[in-house]
Structure to design on (89 residues):
């Protein structure tokens, strides 16, 4: 995705739920955990879930658990995602 299109998608994501989800998915697929964390810290639940999935995919389960504790320790879905056993490779 070109930078201009990414910027446009980010602008749209401020008000459009579909653009927000598309942006979060793109960030996840590109491995951009810093941006996902930033979005999750601003209240984007989808970004939080993608952040947890990304960290776990990177083998960082404890980091995923800490991210949930730091960002939204009351989000049951995020807690469950972060605490699922890692699949054996």
């Amino acid at each position: 995705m070109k930078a201009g299109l990414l910027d446009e998608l980010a602008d749209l994501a401020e008000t459009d739920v579909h653009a927000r989800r598309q942006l979060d998915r793109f960030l996840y697929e590109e491995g951009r955990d810093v941006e996902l964390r930033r979005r999750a810290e601003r209240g984007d639940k989808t970004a939080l879930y993608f952040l947890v999935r990304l960290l776990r995919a990177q083998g960082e389960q404890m980091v995923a658990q800490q991210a949930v504790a730091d960002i939204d320790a009351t989000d049951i879905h995020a807690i469950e995602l972060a605490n699922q056993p890692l699949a054996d490779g």
